[in-house]
Write a structure and sequence with these properties.
- The structure is a homodimer of 328-residue chains.
- Helix content of chain A is 32%, strand content 29%.
- The first copy, chain A, is an alpha+beta fold and 328 residues long.
- In chain A, the strands form three sheets. A seven-stranded mixed β-sheet of chain A has the order 10-13-7-14-11-15-16. Chain A has a six-stranded mixed β-sheet with strand order 1-2-3-6-4-5. A three-stranded mixed β-sheet of chain A has the order 8-9-12, with no helix packed on it.
- Chain A is built from ten helices and 16 strands.
- Chains A and B meet through helix 3, strand 3, strand 4, helix 6 and strand 5 of A and helix 3, strand 3, strand 4, helix 6 and strand 5 of B.
């Protein structure tokens, strides 16, 4: 495989490039994101954190489903709306406690399929959908879901804590299958028990409580390297990653594998001494975990493979979200 | 004025009839809405309540903006997305702590106007927008916002606690103006100081902490009588209301007044002995508060005026949301 063309394909991947608008939008809210003095984490993380008065934080996240997903498979869109939100809370090390949704559709059959998918997601992940809003007269189909979680303030896993010398770990459940219509959806949950799926979420909470990580982020639409890129950008550091060390199900080629959205997948950073307990906690719940490289001070993401070396992102010139730690 | 034609106009008001789909949607989630055992309040209230372990609850609500509002005045849609969500938390007696949003638009100018409106709402209500999701490639403009609040579990103001004999109160800030493009938007906040607007929200928290109410709900798209109808439906009771007692700004005719969405407006129920302290707390923050009638066991909403008497809703045959207390 040609490393250069793989890297070019990743750099131009829509899952990454469509993140470019984020800073344009969040930039408008920079002056007010901490207006009440509770905001510990604002933009740039999988979820935001707001302090409450018992040493805990409330975590908030929201996701909209891609229109293409809604049109092709409303059930799957409903199911995934739960999955992606739960993973946003898990990535912070939090406990997801409830969700709300806004559905726009004129088609009762599509609405029923979406709700059926949501209901299956609720049962699988054990997080209730407790409210929301219906637009019965919208001229389009859309589904937006938000989630709230809770955790101890001192335990939060952020995207901004990676430091030079830390190991970079990729943790992915390798046991799954590609969705028949979406070749970048790596489904690892529909075929598994709620107990195992929920144990995967709680494993991240255990890593958080034990303070084993310096940073973490759930692998989402930008794929494994895009998600790592966002973490590096937020942390103001770089990394070097050896392609062959990234855990992969060999049924999927590298190009697709690096772009796909896994049902349970995280990029993590940690001091070398913590790698062993981290790996044990995640592998106990079927999440394969490998050290794939390390953090460097130079603000670039290098991908190496069999002696070749390519720059995936140079954060001095490229931007993914444009959000940095010193300018939240 | 002809009471019968006024009542007919209210019964057929789109702001009420479009609530009919709610039960079809929430019905699908009835089995799972309390899957984790934390859900104290699910559907049928302005916000849902999830128990956390310090005697508090986390409140969740979500609202989507009407497409018509987005097209005519994106700034106002952004501003209102904050207002309606904050009012949902206020109606429960809670403290709003943070919001997330999902914006879909291809038009950067519209997006900037929406965000500008949101930012103004954040400053006015003192509740930060801490995260969200942008669809830069959606073929439509939409804005969905969710909010999280917090309060003591024992203080929650619900929609389901109204009991026969309780007084029905309507509380509305009468000092405002009709939006130039939307004759049912009664703006009472853009021209007021953040201090007063936030004091109105905190007044509801004071009513909650003092346990002065048996039920309460913020007046939203269904208007004053539609919102009262939803409260009665959820509480499994009826009421009789004297039209002339409802606080009104006489610049607006009755038909529009009963349908409009006020910037700060609530329907409340309480034992007669609590009417005086409730009124004092609300009038201190410019919210005019009047007893307009009382709760009856018969499941109908009667509207009386100058000796005439009409049935607005008969909950044995009509339904607004279809959500009742015994079947959440």
């Amino acid at each position: 495989m040609d490393l250069k063309s793989l890297v070019n394909s990743i750099k131009n991947f829509e899952g990454i490039t469509r993140k470019n608008l984020i800073k344009d939008v969040t930039g408008l809210l920079e002056d007010t994101y901490n207006i009440a003095g509770r905001t510990i984490l604002g933009f740039g993380d999988d979820a935001s954190a707001l302090e409450i008065d018992n040493g805990q934080v409330v975590l908030l996240a929201a996701d909209g489903m891609w229109g293409k997903l809604m049109e092709a498979d409303p059930w799957w869109a409903g199911y995934c709306s739960v999955l992606v939100n739960v993973n946003d809370i898990a990535a912070m090390g939090g406990i997801p406690i409830g969700m709300t949704n806004v559905i726009s559709t004129q088609d009762k059959e599509i609405c029923a399929q979406i709700m059926d998918g949501i209901n299956e997601g609720v049962k699988k992940f054990g997080v209730p959908m407790v409210g929301g809003h219906v637009h019965p007269d919208a001229p389009y189909n859309s589904l937006d879901v938000s989630i709230t979680g809770i955790m101890n303030r001192d335990d939060i896993i952020t995207s901004c804590g990676a430091r030079p010398g830390d190991k970079v770990l990729v943790a992915i459940d390798l046991e799954g299958e590609i969705h028949p219509q979406f070749h970048l959806n790596w489904d690892t949950t529909t075929m598994k028990s709620p107990e195992l799926v929920q144990a995967q979420i709680l494993a991240m909470n255990e890593l958080a409580q034990k303070h084993l990580l310096t940073a973490g982020k759930d692998i989402s639409n930008p794929g494994t390297l895009g998600t790592l890129g966002m973490l590096l950008e937020t942390s103001n550091v770089g990394a070097t990653v050896e392609l062959g060390m990234i855990p992969r199900n060999i049924a999927v080629n590298w190009e697709d594998w690096l772009k796909l959205y896994p049902g349970s997948g995280f990029v993590l950073t940690a001091p070398e001494g913590n790698v062993s307990p981290i790996t044990q906690i995640l592998e106990k719940v079927n999440v394969t975990t490998r050290v794939v490289g390390h953090i460097i001070p130079e603000k670039k993401l290098y991908l190496t493979s069999e002696g070749d070396n390519e720059v995936v992102f140079d954060f001095c010139t490229d931007r993914i979200t444009g959000i940095h730690d010193e300018n939240p």
